[in-house]
Structures are given as structure tokens and as C-alpha cells.
């Protein structure tokens, strides 16, 4: 069983290749070969929007980045260490945002998370991450295709990126919900001890997912409430939309965690019910068999003077006595409601 | 077992026919044949109140609507996607409100919810929903009949609509409460394992209903507290009234959820009690029968020198011994309080 | 088992006779025959204090009342419908207050509640209720007797009424507490399955009482905190006193609910302990009896060549063997701590 | 089992003798024979500090007090009725404070509480209590001995009194903690059903102690936060110190209540584990003994043609068969991990 | 089992030798032999930073300290008494801070805590502790080596000290997490009753650690939020970093406590499941063996007229009957799903 929080404080050894994609919206052209060193000049031009995407960066990339943008050393450190806790920090002139893309491994039935570190300035967006992240590629692709839909604004880029990341949570949530409902149905339809392990696995996954989504919700809340010098006021409705999605997800998770707890209670009740049934069977069968055996035992005694033994109908009488007592006991158990 | 939240993110395929009822209070006449395109002119007249009711709208209806009223695209999206979470958003010049009508299927013993999306402007009210909703039809009917009771105000229309929707919650709540009390009585009166399934089904329904009602309560709270430019101040008492109803419902749900939990605890205790009883029976019967069988076994031994075997009263003596030991055991168990 | 919330939304059919007592403090005279229609004149005189008590009012009484005082229709509706939720609403010029008198039926061991609706104006107090309420009669009697102690103030009248109502909660609480402590003592002293039903009945009663008292506490809090134009500032200490009583009651209820939960846990543990004891008895007795029976069985075999069978001391040897094995088993069980 | 809240609303019949000690710091002299009636003159002198200690006061003492100091009737009532709830009320010119001294009866293993009512004025401190309270005597003794350490300030007197009361909580807490740890160790070391009763008794005592201490913490918080006209600003650090002690106590109580809950869970698990062990023993022994008995039964059958019966080694063969089957069964149970 | 809170209110008898290290940054020289009495002169020089480290101080050391720095007596008392509760108090001109270093004893599998008391002035830092604390030595060593990295600021020294202390929490947390995951895996892979004790030990350690870390988090929060005259504004990001670490630790602890609770539930379910299995085995075996024994008993009866007894195939017939009934029973149990 792997760790829930896999990478606390140790630098994860990532096998993804380093990629240094610099995308800048300069007269409609997207350039993935811009020199890192040229960035500081680019962002001087206030009408430029620059998106820098660093995948699995080396130390020297980070150093350059730090030089070009003047990021705070603690923010750089946060960006390159795994955290498992979304957050937003306001620095002088830019925000630092930690967000998480989620991936569901249907075979292993496990969620894994990928950290995306974002530096959000007035006219730039810097993404740092270890592994390839579908939502980033998707957002860049859509930006390139529908450029004028995205407006001229970093906030809008950010909205599209976060929205794409969060949209990918829904199918994962749906997969978990389906499993919860399967396990729930299973419990009442055909009770199997294996359901227990599934309940606990689901509890674990929902707990992991909730922890990340709830923190992201708090981050979005900060983005919405704060007097933000970084994005125009009318973007609020858009971030509110992402926020609503996150609330809906945590609400659903809470509801399904409640249902899982109910399912566990039901499982335990049914288990205990089954024990009752087994013990009842044991009790009924034991009492009947022991009573019959006692009669057999009595007529197996070796006393010289046992008149029944020489009766011609002695043997059938004994068998009949056994049957009669068994029927009597069954009647008693029926009256008690045990049968 | 169907989903609690049935439609998350997928567009529900509704079979209700599209209906485009435009009702406008224009010199006391209600017109269901007004052209959609004429609405923008109507709402220019400040002394008009316009109620637009769109059932199961097509994409082109929505586009027209958006053109005529200038609604925000995100609000339109919210109005046409299923959510399971009531909310209120303030836009420039209007509110967007999500509310839910509930229906109780007495045969299936399940609650289902129907989303009502409302756009509330200074002199218009736009309802969008998929299925026919009784409360809307009822409100329109009452508006038509008692027009002057409704005043000249959108807020009053809104109050009547929300009040009608919420009033329909009470019989549903009563049906659930009756089931809770039935199951509670059942547990102590005649214990049946089936009660367990009913307890969990009720927990589920109350959870679903509470989730919706509690969010609606929050929405009403916003309506009451907020400096609302949309309705006159003296409407507050009316919305307060709906708010009170919603609080009463959530309070009752919480109380009955507490009672259900108690009932489950009682069920488990009684189940465990029953196990105790069964095991006691088993123990008492086993010990008595085994003791008697041991005596029979002893006199069934084949030793040559067993004086009792040749006693004339040996056989009755053995039977008497069995009876005596049984009575002794019964006395012991009685003293222990097991009988 | 009757409903916790008996009357939600249906008008209770009350059998108490209608009574229309109008009490007014007009030059020290109490008049129960004042015409309802004369009230509006009376309350014009600012130096008058008017107490109107309507028991089980008819619709026409309410209509008159509404005309004379000009109460809001929603308040009138609240006053005549059963609610089970204390509340306070500020209207223009008066407060509307819902409070509950409690009665404990010692035979049935159940609490029942009676709604008192109060309209509190600058110089009048209107009570509406269905059944006769002891606290109201008591307060009026004391007002008549010690008139000058009550001051010249509606707030003081209100304080005396609420204080009398709340004072009647204490003996009810004491009765419940006594039952909690009885059931607690019972569990450890002489365990009986009936304790379970008593625990759940008490949980139910405490839950009901807490729900009402906690809401009344919130209502008093509003009375104390709010800038109240209706009563003079120095009354705050008095209302604070009622508030303290209510807090003390909810605190006690919470403590005793905690103790009840503990008692239930204790009950279940003892029940489970008892099962352990029974099963231990079964195990010990079975093993001993079966071992002895096995020896008897062995010497009941019919082999031709069994030397022990022809020993003169064979029979005593067999019985001695049974005794020896039984003693050995008992020693083993003692060492294990089972005996 | 006595009541947790012993005296709710009934005046406790105290057997402690009435004592009317009036202590005043008048030019260094402590006078316990000052006439009550002289107090009003004393407290007029602003440079005087007066400590009035009334133990088990009679009604006329209270009346005098009320006259001399002009205390509010509700405060006087609160001071002389048992409450079980610490509180602070600000009156015009003085505070009224309810605090509780605790005493631990090591033999009975029960905590009892003693109410101390304090009126705190600018230059006086009035204590009212029923039973002798060690902390009060101790504080007065220290005041007399180290007079100049106490400063010239009522707040400092108050601090010393509260500090002495709270300091006496620590040994009580330590006694409870020791019992918690004993019971915890007991559970895992040598499981005894009696632990259960001790766990519930401890839960009860911790609950009682927490209820009082937590309310006192709130009272201190009010003393620290409030703009207090009664004591100088630099006293805050001292009251903060008492507050810290109370927080430390509630924190410890919470931690140990958590540990008690864990201990209860552990107890139940071990109890259930023990049941498993017993039932396993029963199962293993039954199956082995029944199998051997079956063989004995078979060779006890009376068929004429049973070849084994006439074998010379028939009897040893039968015994060997029993042994073989027993060993086989033991091997099977070992493989299953039951032995 | 030792105490969770070992030293409440009693002075711990420490065996660590007293050490009086005075470190001062005076023209780059670190001096551990500075006279205590010279400190007051040193701290007069505003450009000096003085770090005083007192290990296991004697009463006279503390008196001197108090004289030189003028610390408040309550702060001195707090510094020398064990507390188990981190806190921060603002005094006139300095902060008093209680923090805890943690140590994990891998052999005993227990966490122990060491109190560090800090007085933080404008240009001095005084540490008081009983035992040698690695983080302090480490911080001093790094300060000496990389002096100019530390800036000229007490706040930076403080940051480095707290950061070093908190960094040592992570390996301890990792050790606990590993144990949680081991015990979790154990439960489902090879169920052993010993897991129970490990679960409760872990709960205890996590509870202890959480209590300390959560209080330290609150302390850091005060440091960040408060208008702090003691350190420059740009240090906030650094303290924020320590705060984030502490939040991450408490979050992880909470998650793992949740998982432990789940693990306990799983353990209990599996235990109960095992009981079910054992009882099923008992039931099946008993019924089969008793049925066969009954047949043997019947043919062991001594009736004169039992035709089967003289059948040549009587014996095999009896054995065959036993086998047939056993197979029938097995078939029945299979159909019931018990086998």
C-alpha cells in the first residue's frame, strides 16, 4: 500500500524529460524556442502576454528564471518541492499559486495528483511542474486556436487553465461515485466480506481528493475576495464559476462520504445479523440432535431390567419418540420466531 | 440503486415537451402567444411586469433570450445544466437564482428534485426548467385569478412562487417523518431485520432533502440580508417567512436524523440482545442435554462389574438421576438470572 | 408512538373552550369584560398598560384584533398555527414572540409543549394560545395582587411571564435528570435489557426539550442584544436573568445527553460482556461434559478384547478417569482466567 | 450514584456554621469584628481596601450587605443560590463573579464543587460561600503576612484568590490523570471487566470538571478582553496567567478524554477479541471431541456382523483412530492459524 | 505506560549539566565566556546582537538574567516550569515564546518533547532549556559559519532557529506515517490481534504531536498577523514559511488520524468477520458430527427386536447412512453459501 502523501519533503525523482517551452503571445505568433534570457525584455513590454511552461526544470533553469523575473527564493523553493497542499501567496507584484491536476488510474483504482506551480504576474504566467499535464497542453492548444476568445489578459488565461484542471475532476469523481453506489448496492443485494475492503479503499480515495479540492476551494475564495491588483474586476464571475465547481465537488464528496459511513454501518449490521442467523441455526440443530441422541443413549444403557427393550415395538417406539420430540422442539422454535 | 445526484455535468435527456409560455401582465391580459422577440420592447416599459416561463427550451430559445435580456453566458449555462445545488448570484441589474421543486414518489419511496432557474429583474421574472413543475403552474393560475392581491411587484411574484415551492416540501417531510416513526415503533414492538434497510433508505432520503433545503435556506438568507436594489424593503417580512419555513424544515430533518441514528443504535442493541438470548438458550439446553447424555453413556458402558446394572430399580434410578441433575441445573441458571 | 412534532402545518383541533379575557390596568382595576372593540381607544392612552389574553380564539376574534392593533397578517398567521420553534420578529412598533410552556406527564413519561404567541407593544401585551396555560394565569394573579411591584412597564410584565414559564422547566428537567440517573445506576447495579428502551425514550425527551429551550435562548439573546425601542435599558439585567436560566438548562441537558450516550456505551459493553460470560460457560461445560462422555463412549464399545471391561475395578476406574479429566480441565480454565 | 448537578434550584441545606468575617486593610490592621453596618463608611474612604467574607450567611446578613453596598437584587439572588455555572456580570460600579473551588474525595473518588460568589468593587471584595473554602483562608493568611506584596489594589487581591483556587485544580487533575493512565495500562496488561466501570466513572468526573473549568476560562477571557474600569491595565498579565492555567487544564482534560475514548474502544476490541478466542477454543475442542465420540459411538453399535469387533487389535485400533483424527484436526486448525 | 504530559506543574529533575553559553556577535567573534553581568552593557549597544543560551540554569542564573534584562517574573516562571503548551506573550519591549523540540525514540517507538523558552528582544535572543537541544547547537554552528547570510537581525536568527526545530518534525512524522501504513497493510494482509495495540499506540503519539504542533501553528500565526515592533516587515514571508510547514504537518496528522480510525473500524469489522467464520465452522461441524453420532447411538440401542442389527449388511448400511446424511448437510450448507 503506497503512501497517501508520497513525497513529503523529499524531492521526487521524476523520469519525465525536461522541456522548456516558452510560449509568448507576440503578434499572434507562438514561439517555443525563445531564449530564457530574452524573457525579461519581453515582459517589459506591457502589451505582451508571456506564458512560460517549465516541465521538470533543472537547477540552472530555475536560477535563470529567478534572475529574469526576480521571484522570491521561498516561492522558487515551494515551486520545486512537492507539497500536497494547494495555496496562494501574494508577493510583491505577482501571486504564487499551487494547484493540483488529478489523474485516476482505473486499473489500480487509485487517484494520483500532480503539482502545478504558477507565478501570476501582470502580463506573464509561469507554470512549473514535473510530469506532463494534460490540462496545460490542452489550454495552450485552445489558446493558440481561439486566440481572440481568450482576450488580452493573463487572468483569462489563468481562468481557462484552472477551469480545464477542475473540469478533469468531474469524471474522476463520477468514477468514485459509481464505485460507492456499486458497493452500496452490493451490501444489500448479495452480502460479501470483500465489500469491506472496497469501502475502506473508497474512504481513502475520497479523503485524499477532498483534502486537495477543499484547499483549492479556499485558494479560489482568496482570489475572489481579495482586492486583486492583478486581474480586472469583471473576471470575478469567471473565478466564481471555478469556485462553484469546487464547492459542488466537495459537497458531493461529503455526501458520498456520509453514504459510505452509512454503508459501513449497514455492512456491520448485516454481518452481525448473519452471525445471529448462524448461531440460531446452531442452537436449533444442536438442541434437536442432542435430544434425539439422549433417547438413543437411554436405550443404549445396559440395565438388566429395562422393560422397553423387550417390547416388540420398542425400537419403533424409540424412533417415534425421537421424531415426536424433534417436532415439538421445532414447534417451540417456530412460536419463538426463530424459524 | 439510482444515483443520489443523477445528472452531474451531463445534460439530462428530458422527455417533457418544449413549451414557450410568455406571460405578461399588460393591462390585465395574460398572453401566452407573445413573440419572444417582442420582450425587449415590453420590458422597456417600466410599468410592465413580465413573466417568461421556458420549459425544456431549445438552444435557439436560449440564444434569443440571451439577446433580449442580455444575460451573462455563465448564468445561461448554469440555467441549462443540472446542478443539485441551489444558489443565488448577483449580476448587473438582475439576480440569478437556482431553486428546486421536490416530488415524492410514494410507490418507489424516493424523492426526486426538479431544477428551477430564475432570472429576477426589476420588472421581469424568467423561469427555465426541464419538466413541468406544479408550483409554477399553480402560481401563475393564482396570479391570473387574484391579480390585485399580487401587487405590482416582481418581488411579490417571486415570493408567491418560492412560497408555493416550499409549501410542497411539507407533505414530503411529513411522509418521511411518518416512515421514521413507523420504523422506530417497529424496532421496539416487533423486531425485524428488514427495519435495517428502511433505516438506511430513510437516512439517504433525509440527507438528500437536507442538502437541498439547507442550501436554499442560505440563498434566502442572502436575499434577506443583502442590500437588494431589486425588491422593496417591506418584502423582507415575506422572504423572512419563506426563510423561517426552510429553517423549520432543516430543524425537523436534523431532529429526525438524530432519531434515526438513535433508532439504528437501538436496532443494533436489540440485535445484540437477541444474540445474547439465543446463545443463552443454546448454553442452557446444551448443558442439560449433555449432562443427561453423560449418565446414559455411563450406564451404556460394558464393564462386567457394574452393580447398578443388575439393580431391579437401576433403570428408574438412572432416569431419576437425569431428571434430578436437569432440575439442579435449571435452578442454577435461574439463580444466575439466565432463565 | 406519537409524533415529536405533532402539529406541523395542520391546525390543531383544540378542545379547550374559547376564553376572551381582556385585562387592563386602568386605575388599578382589572376588567375581564372589556369589549374587544374598545381596545384601540385604550391603547391610545399612553399611560395605560393593556394585557389581552385570547385562549382558543375564533377567526372573528382574530379579525377584530387585527383591526384594533393593526398586526401584520403573517404575524397573525404565525400566532394561530402550531410551529414548534420559538422565534422573535420585529415589526413596525411591536415585537412578535413565540414561546413554549412545557408540561410533563408523569404517568406517560412524556413532555408536551404549548405554544404561547405574544404581541409586545409599547403599552400592551397580547397573548394568544390554545390551551389554558398555568404560567399565564399565575402571572396575571401575581400582577393583580402585587401591582406596584410590577412597575408601570410592559417589559416588566413580559419578564414576569417569561420567568414564570421558564421556572416551570426546572422541575421537568429534574424529573428527566432523575430518570437518567436511575437508568445509569440500574445499568451497573442490575443489568436489565429494559434499560435500553428507557435510554432511548430519555434521549428523545431531552432532544425535544433541548430543541425548544435552545431556540428560546436565541430569542432571549436577540431581546438582550438588540437596540430595543420597546423596553427601558435597565430591564436588560432581568432578561439576562431569564437568559441565564435557559443557558443553564441547555447546559444541563447537554451534560445529561452526554451521560446518556455514555450510559448507552456502558450498556452495550455490559451486554457484550454478558455474552462473553455466557459463551465461556458454554465452552467450559461443553468441553468437560464431552470429555467425560467420550470416556463413557469408549467403554461402551463392543470389542471382544477390551481388558478393562473385565477388571473388577474397571467401572470405578472409568468414573475416576472422568473425574480426573474434569478436574484437569477445570485447572486449565482456571489458569487461563476463565473461571 | 449521586447527582452530577446536585443543587439545581433548591437551596442547599448547609451544615457549615455561619461566620461573618470582615477583614479590612485599615492602617495594616485586620479586623474580624468590624460591624457590618460600618462598612458603608469604610468604603467611602477611597484609600481603603475592604475584604468581606460571608460564610453561610443568614437572610439578615444579606439584607444588610445589600443596604451597605447597594447590590442588585438579582446578583444577591445569584450569590445565594447554587448554580454550577461560573459567570461574570458587570453591574453599575462593580462586577459580580461566580467561581468554583474543587475538592477531590480520594476515598469516594469523586470531585465536588463549592460555589464562591464575589462582588468586586473599586476598593472592596465581597465573598459569599456556604462551606469553608481553603483557598480563601489561605489567601487571607498570605495577605496578612505579606501585605505589601499584594499592593494596594483589589485586582491584585482578586488575582491571588483566583490563582489559589485554580492552583488547587492541578493536583485534582493529576489524580484523575493517574487514574486514566492506570486504567489504560490495565486494559492492555491484564484485561478485567471492572476497567469498564472505571472508564465510565472517569468520563463522568472529567466531564464535570471540564464543564466548570471551561466556563471559568470564558469568564477570565471576559476579564482580560473587556475595557475594565475596575482594575489597572498592568494586571492583565496576571489574569492572563490564570487564564493560561485554565486553558492548560481544559486542554489536558480534552486530551485525556480522547485517550479515555480510545481506551474504551480498546477495551471493546479486546473484549470482542476475547470472545473470538473463547469461541475458537469451543469450536476446536467440540470438533475434536465429537469426532472421537463418533468413533466410539460407531463401535458401540450392536450389529451382529461387525468384523472389527472380533479383531484382537480392534480396541487399540479404535483408540488409535481417535488419536489420528484428533491430530489431523489439530494440524488443520494450525494451518488455519487458529492455534 | 508513562504519562503523556509528564511534568505538569512539578519541576522536572533534569540530569543534563548546567551550561552557560553566552554567544554574542561582537565584531564577528563568538564568545562563550562572557560574564552574565556584562550583558546589560552589551545590549545597550544597539548594533550588537546577543544570543544567550542557558541550559539547565540554576536559580542564581535566572536571578541575574532577570536583573540584566528586566524580564517579568511570570515570564521567568513560565520559562523554568514545564508546560506542554507552546505560547507567545507580548511583554513590554520583548516577546516571550515557548516552543518544543521533538525527539523520536525508535527503539521505544515514543516521541518525547523538550521545552525551549525564548525571550526575543530588539537585539537579543535568550534561550532557556533543560536538556541539550540539537536544533540550537545546529543553528549556532550555522550562524558562526555563514554569519553574513543571517543578516544583522534577531528576527532572522529566530527564523533560523524555529525553522531548524520544525524541520526536525518531518522525519518524526515520516516515521509515524510509515507505522500507520504498515499497520494498515497488516490488517488486510495478515490479520493479527497485535495490530490493535499498535493502532492505539499510534493514535496516542499522533495526538501528542498534534497538540504541540497545532499550538505552535497558532503561535506563528500571532507572529505573522500581529503588528510586530520586533522584526522588520519583510521577515513575514519567512515566518509564513515556518507556518506553512506547521500547517502541512497538522494536515498530515489529521489525515493519518482519520486513516487510523478507518483502520480501527476495519480491524473491528475483520475481527467480527473472523468470529462469523469460526462460528460457521462450529455450526457446520457440530451438525454433521451430531447427526452421524445420532445414527451410531440409534444402532447402539439394546432393543431385542431391531431387524437391522441382524442384517449382514447392517454395519455398512449404518456407515453409509452417516456418509449420506453428511453429504446432504454439506450440500445444504453450500446452497446457503456457508461453505
Automatic annotation (TrEMBL), chains A, B, C, D, E:
GO cellular component terms attached to this protein's record: plasma membrane
Record-given protein name: Magnesium transport protein CorA
GO molecular function: cobalt ion binding; cobalt ion transmembrane transporter activity; magnesium ion binding; magnesium ion transmembrane transporter activity
Upper lineage: Bacteria, Bacillati, Chloroflexota, Chloroflexia, Chloroflexales
Superkingdom classification of source: Bacteria
Keyword Transferase listed: no
Pfam families reported for this sequence: CorA
Entry similarity comment: Belongs to the CorA metal ion transporter (MIT) (TC 1.A.35) family.
Cell location: Cell membrane; Membrane
Record's keyword terms, sorted: Cell membrane, Ion transport, Magnesium, Membrane, Transmembrane, Transmembrane helix, Transport
Function (record text): Mediates influx of magnesium ions.
